[in-house]
Amino acid sequence: MQLFLVLFSENGLLSQMCFVCFLQKPDLAGLAEFLKPLNEVISKANKLAEGRRSDFFNHLKAAVDSLSALAWIAYTGKECGMSMPIAHVEESWQMAEFYNNKILVEYKSKDPNHVEWAKALKELYLPGLRDYVKSNYPLGPVWSSTGKAVTAAPPKAPRPSAPAPPPPPPASLFTSESSQPSSSTGYKHGMSAVFQEINSGKPVTSGLRKVTDDMKTKNRAERTGVVGSSEKETRTSAPSFSKAGPPKLELQMGRKWVVENQIGKKSLVIDDCDAKQSVYIFGCKDSVLQVQGKVNNITVDKCTKMGVVFRDVVAAFEIVNCNGVEVQCQGSAPTISVDNTAGCQLYLSKESLGVSITTAKSSEINVLVPGSEPDGDWGEHSLPQQFVHIFKDGHFETTPVSHSGG
Which residues contact 42 (CB under 8 A, 6 or more apart)? Predict the structure, then answer.
């Protein structure tokens, strides 16, 4: 919970949120200024969750994603585009619960302190913040009619040594008088000016620049289509993973196998592993890794066209921020989670058919299961990525859109 206290105390956010009742209801500019400390807190917290994943990534993501629940204070009415405060708190927690549940699964039989932490985080919002808002501000914050006004910060004065403004843009293709500012019609921009030109009654092509003979392809000397050497040099594209570090395949601190920045390696193998170790795969492309033994958990992060074959995991197999990955489970896995991934093929063994598969913000996920006969064909099932939400009996009922062939 120290994350909340540090971020809030640095920005004075706690005191600002507590004294809403002494402030007048601000306009849009004033509201943006009032919410600026909260936005800075959320932005700073999001930066903490970026980059390489630590061993406590799920803890950090759960805490960071839950912070959006505090934005209930921005509710100003039905026209503001937000859910009502109580619903906003509940919806915001659903974003964090995906990672909070991972903590409960991973540490259920390992460390009860982490389980208690995850439960305490949830109780902070549900029922904590939700019940507080429900009891005191179900319709939004209560502003004072005689309190201090909240105004936008005055614009900063320009620096005395400011650089000169850039040169004006080149003349438009449409150069008629109707596109110039006038006292009667006002200045029109973009497509409005184009349509005004068309509707003016003048010849449509009168304002277009003419194509001279030397501009025509048949009269150009360089019409062969051969690219000169100087042009080739300027058009070279940057290679993929240009900022990637050196490739790694190593055991760190005796607990964590790290596989990083492997490109085009089809025969990566981890065979000396045990159930207390984890495997973290990051930034790999067009490669295949085999994990020949039981490990605690495996995470595939920011990989493209990556294949992973593993035997058994104790906690979970996680896929996050990937594109076009294939995973084959030869033994058992209690949980497989897919987050923010486009294109994923999961091959399950008969021992792993009881797996719980969790997906979020992902598409094109196919699960292949073995046939009933030893030599039977694999059965392919596509997991839904579209859902229908129907309001019924006071709540929403969600059903997946059916997929043919699944």
Answer: 64, 67, 68
The stretch 340-351 carries a mean pLDDT of 93
290, burial (CB in 10 Å: exposed 0-12, middle 13-18, buried 19+): middle
| CA distances (Å), origin 391, targets 38, 333, 394, 399 | 32, 36, 7, 12
Final residue in a domain of this structure, among 75, 106, 137: 137
Domain count of the fold of the chain: 2
Q: Tokens 């040594």 correspond to what residue?
A: 161
- Count CB-CB contacts under 10 A for residue 224: 7
- Find the length of the chain: 406
CATH (domain of 23):
1.25.40.330
What is the band of 230 on the pLDDT scale with cuts at 50, 70, 90?
very low
Is 96 contained in some domain?
A: yes
Domain that holds residue 2: 1-137
**176 pLDDT tier (thresholds 50, 70, 90):** very low
Give the pLDDT band (50/70/90) at residue 245: confident
pLDDT over threshold 90, residue 376: no
Could you give the CA distance from residue 47 to residue 64 in angstroms, rounded to a whole number?
Answer: 10
Q: Is the peptide bond before 127 cis (omega within 30 degrees of 0)?
A: yes
Q: Provide the total of helices (H) and of strands (E) in the chain, helices listed first.
A: 10, 14
Q: Which of 344, 348, 341, 357 is nearest to 311 (CA)?
A: 348
Residue 230 is assigned to a structural domain of this protein? no
Question: What DSSP line would sit under 308-358, residue for residue?
Answer: EEEEEEEEEEEEES-EEEEEEESS--SEEEEES-EEEEEE--GGGTT-EEE
